[in-house]
Design brief:
Number of domains: 3
Number of strands: 10
CATH architecture of the largest domain: Orthogonal Bundle
CATH class of the largest domain: Mainly Alpha
CATH topology of the largest domain: Butyryl-Coa Dehydrogenase, subunit A, domain 1
Largest sheet: 4 strands, mixed
Shape: globular
Order of helices and strands: HHHHHHHEEEEEEEEHEEHHHHH
Bound molecules: flavin-adenine dinucleotide
Length: 428
């Protein structure tokens, strides 16, 4: 039985506690439809379940009270505050979909998407940490891990160990399956040699999912997923990148010098790594789209607060000039459209429907909206938008990454066009 949670309770318990004590798990994270919806009247796409609303409110409160005061300093220092990472675990935000039996929150995919969006509204760097950990790393272990791997790693991923997803390399970005990192089988496990590039969370991570080719004679069909733990001999972080945006999120070059791992650290089946990576990145794109939607809203809110409540010129608030109001209204409309694409893609995934085109459209559009709106928001604030005292310029810098990672905008367009052409091509 669902018991409403009061504001007072929100202040004293984490989402993890709320979830396990009070809330029903209304939707399953498994992709197949498990319930009959024929009798349920269609609802607005942005309608949230009680669990999802609780997640939204908890994350929003945490982001404003705990993250916001740290955002500027973390960006300047290009560093994620370790105390904040601990709090993200304590709140249950790092194990959103991990089943409760493994110490996770046991919520659904849309809850994870909502958490990512709410975090990005305040700090897109924290948002991407949570996004990669939940939508790529946790999901990969939940989907393809053996029972032994799940028992060993899911409780850690839910409570204290950050994860990274290592696919990209110096030679393989958009053409991800041209990767050169190799794995060889040994008497008691595997040996990995090569290098990875652009790996999010690497400085904070204790756990790395690494894609390597176990049988290069088979081309991309040799790609296999492995688990490498921090501290394994021969594995090191070779470089931490200095970036334009999301500076508090670590992005690193990794090197693997004959790194030996036990045979249990094979993730899933040999040669299936390319399928796993495609599948998981299709889902992950909805997370990046949510990040970009949250970022756009955060930039918009930050600016309208200034132009409607603070800054006056010619005797009135600058946001009251029609030339400003129209831009503000247009921007909010675009954010709402991006959010509709994001939630629709998430709902389709949960319903077990084909969501690949929807995810690509959501990521493409949300990143465009984030760039446009955060850029305009700087202009609406005049000089105050350009200085590093506030967050306007940071949102704009952070927005650029949306068109690059988890498939560039061109790659999303390729996917959308390919799927459309399939639907609209007459056979024969
Ligand atoms: C901050 C950051 C974090 C990241 N985190 C991770 C991570 O955690 N794990 C991970 O594995 N990777 C990660 N990446 C890598 C990211 O996914 C790649 O950067 C991205 O896929 C693009 O690859 P690339 O940088 O090599 O660009 P390239 O593939 O070299 O692309 C360069 C340009 O060519 C265009 N292009 C390429 N191919 C085509 C085509 N077929 N049609 C049209 N245009 C094309 C692209 O759109 C782009 O404009 C991260 C990257 C960054 C910058």
């Amino acid at each position: 039985m669902y018991t409403p949670v009061t504001d007072a309770e929100f202040t004293t318990v984490s989402f993890l506690e709320i979830s396990s004590s009070y809330l029903l798990r209304l939707l399953s994270a498994t992709p197949r439809r498990l319930y009959d919806i024929s009798e349920i009247p269609p609802t607005p796409i942005t309608h949230l379940s009680d669990t999802e609303t609780a997640m939204q409110e908890t994350v929003s409160k945490f982001a404003k009270e705990v993250i916001l005061p740290k955002v500027r300093d973390m960006d300047e220092a290009e560093n994620m505050d370790p105390a904040l990472v601990e709090q993200l675990f304590e709140q249950g935000f790092m194990g959103v979909e991990i089943p409760e039996e493994y110490g996770g929150t046991g919520a659904n995919f849309t809850s994870a998407i909502i958490a990512i969006e709410e975090l990005a509204r305040v700090d897109p760097s924290v948002s991407v940490m949570v996004d990669v950990h939940n939508t790529l790393v946790n999901t990969a272990i939940t989907k393809w891990g053996t029972n032994q791997l799940k028992k060993k790693f899911l409780p850690r991923l839910a409570t204290d160990t950050v994860g990274s997803f290592c696919l990209s390399e110096p030679v393989s970005g958009s053409d991800a399956f041209k990767l050169a990192t190799k794995a060889t089988e040994t008497s008691d496990g595997f040996k990995i040699s090569g290098g990875k590039m652009w790996i999010t969370n690497a400085m904070e991570s204790g756990f790395f999912i690494v894609f390597a080719n176990l049988d290069p004679s088979k081309g991309y069909r040799g790609i296999t997923a492995f688990i490498v733990e921090k501290g394994t001999k021969g594995f090191e972080i070779a470089k931490k990148e200095k970036k334009l945006g999301i500076k508090a999120s670590s992005t690193c070059v990794l090197s693997f010098d004959d790194v030996e791992i036990p045979k249990e650290n094979l993730l899933g089946e040999r040669g299936q790594g390319y399928k796993y990576a495609i599948g998981i990145l299709n889902e992950g794109r909805i997370g990046i789209a949510a990040q970009m939607t949250g970022l756009a809203l955060g930039a918009w809110e930050n600016a309208v607060n200034y132009v409607w409540n603070d800054r006056k010129q010619f005797g009135q608030f600058v946001g009251e000039f029609q030339g400003m109001q129209h831009q503000i209204a247009q921007s909010y409309t675009e954010i709402a459209a991006a959010r509709a694409l994001v939630y629709n893609a998430a709902r389709k995934k949960e319903a077990g429907e084909d969501f690949v085109r929807d995810a690509a459209m959501a990521k493409l559009f949300a990143s465009q909206v984030a760039g446009r709106v955060s850029g305009l928001a700087v202009e609406w604030m005049g000089g105050m938008g350009f200085v590093r005292e506030g967050l306007a310029e940071k949102f704009w810098r952070d927005s650029k990454i949306g068109a690059i990672y988890e498939g560039t905008s061109n790659i999303q367009l390729n996917t959308i066009a390919k799927l459309l052409q399939k639907d609209y091509t007459t056979s024969g």
